[in-house]
User: Fold this.
Amino acid sequence: MTDQAEIKKGWRERWLSSIEEFANFETQRQTWLDNENTNLHYTFVEYMCCYFDDLNLSDGGYAWALKEGLVSKEEHDAIDQFHEIADRYDAPANDDYDHIEILKDPAWKAVVRAAQAAQKALEPLLFDPNEKEILKGKTDPKNA
Assistant:
């Protein structure tokens, strides 16, 4: 596999995994509210950072990813509404660490629903079985 193909594969796995995490309200509830959870990944702040910052989707959204061939136009269209809703989301009282209030927030529930709709719209567009499994949350991309 070429370096570019490896980069694309890794980016897409992180991207699909991130969408699955936004869509999985039950895992959010279980991990964000677990006082014994020491894995910082399972926090609202980290979910937002993993999607927007780590995937370079903060400034300009998907324009660069489309140009680089990391996502197709159809894939972009499938997740565009989720991206817009998540990008506009602000935690209640701007407290990104108050997981109880975030999980109760109707606006956060709208983000989760939009991620679930994106999952459903993306699935038929994916041809790689591993990508489909990641999108469904059945494979940890760190171990794939």
Summary: The two ends are 15 Å apart (CA to CA). The chain has a mean pLDDT of 93. Residues 3-23 form the longest helix (21 residues). Helices lie at 3-23, 25-32, 44-53, 63-67, 73-88, 99-104, 106-122, 129-135.
